[in-house]
Design goal:
10 strands; 8-stranded parallel sheet; two-stranded antiparallel ribbon; globular; about 35% helix; alpha/beta
Length: about 325
């Protein structure tokens, strides 16, 4: 069974990675170490998660112990939107590398298709609480991303939260040097993303699913929101395979050749989430799970809605 996706660059990207969004600084080092011990070789990070320094400590510890070598790992990070002005991109990448204690990233993503006003604040807002846009277009930022590949700081570059129209603009950019290797998007049975995944895969762009378990610990969750892990239909399929609902939700992506990055800081769950290569969902079960789609997003981010490049108004 395949455990990797081959990127357009030729690199192999592990299908299963550890997500680190919302993993607090006090817990994430131990989570990273537990994940590497459990067999994870792909770690998904981002500047805006504000925990990269601890992630780096966990990685270093495992390299020091001889459990892994740097080249065994596939490390992903993301350029935050307040660094989209061309002169800021390299410094932002270098800050991430310093925090992670690495000399290169395997994949570096533009976190969103829009820039935000440069400065100290991660989420610059006006007096109405709405986001303040930056003044650099995504195509200019992409050129600065390409330069990171050329100077050896990153092996591959990609995007996150881009809709197909935005991807199309990058692919059609005059003088494009490197096409995006990956698009990281929210995806789970309530947001199956069939059109966008089909589009990306048809263009040789790998897809990574974030919030594959529906992000139950997102800070803005409401009691009436649907809960994937408690969905009786998922539980029923899990019971049939003697697996947990989380394992079924992770396996669902793997069978679509979609990379998946469940987040946990609980060692037992980290181990459990990796045990998804020893069973297979039937064609019928896959079709059933796809039928749960209701275009429900855990990550809508209302403050971004006024931005011209807000990606989620498009059909896909």
């Amino acid at each position: 069974m395949a455990t990797c996706v081959r990127l357009s660059t030729g690199a192999e990207m592990p299908l299963l990675g550890l997500g680190t969004w919302k993993s607090s600084a006090g817990q994430v080092k131990a989570a990273v170490m537990a994940a590497i011990d459990a067999g994870y070789r792909h770690l998904d990070c981002a500047y805006v998660y504000q925990n990269e320094s601890e992630v780096g400590e966990g990685i270093q510890q495992k390299i020091k112990e001889g459990v892994v070598k740097r080249e065994d790992l596939f490390i992903v990070s993301k350029l935050w939107c307040t660094f989209y002005d061309k002169p800021l991109v390299k410094g932002a990448c270098q800050k991430t590398l310093t925090d992670l204690k690495l000399d290169y990233l395997d994949l570096y993503l533009m976190h969103w298709p829009f820039g935000l006003k440069a400065g100290e604040e991660l989420l610059p807002t006006d007096d109405k609480g709405m986001s303040v846009p930056g003044n650099t277009g995504m195509l200019d930022t992409w050129e600065a991303m390409e330069e990171l590949v050329d100077c050896g700081l990153v092996k591959a570059i990609g995007i996150s939260n881009f809709n197909h129209e935005q991807i199309e603009r990058i692919l059609n950019k005059p003088g494009l040097k490197y096409k995006p290797a990956c698009n990281q998007i929210e995806c789970h049975p309530y947001l199956t993303q069939e059109k966008l995944i089909k589009y990306c895969q048809s263009k040789g762009i790998a897809v990574t699913a974030y919030s594959p378990l529906g992000s139950p610990d997102r800070p803005w969750a409401k009691p009436e929101d649907p809960s994937l892990l408690d969905d009786p239909r998922i539980k029923e399929i899990a019971a049939k395979h003697k697996k947990t609902p989380a394992q079924v939700l992770i396996r669902f992506h793997i069978q679509r050749n979609v990379i998946v990055i469940p987040k946990s800081v609980t060692p037992q769950r980290i181990v459990e989430n990796f045990k998804v290569f020893d069973f297979e969902l039937t064609k019928e079960e896959m079709a059933t799970i796809l039928s749960f789609n209701r275009n429900w997003r855990a990550c809508v981010l209302d403050m971004f809605k006024i931005l011209k490049e807000y990606p989620f108004n498009a059909e896909y």
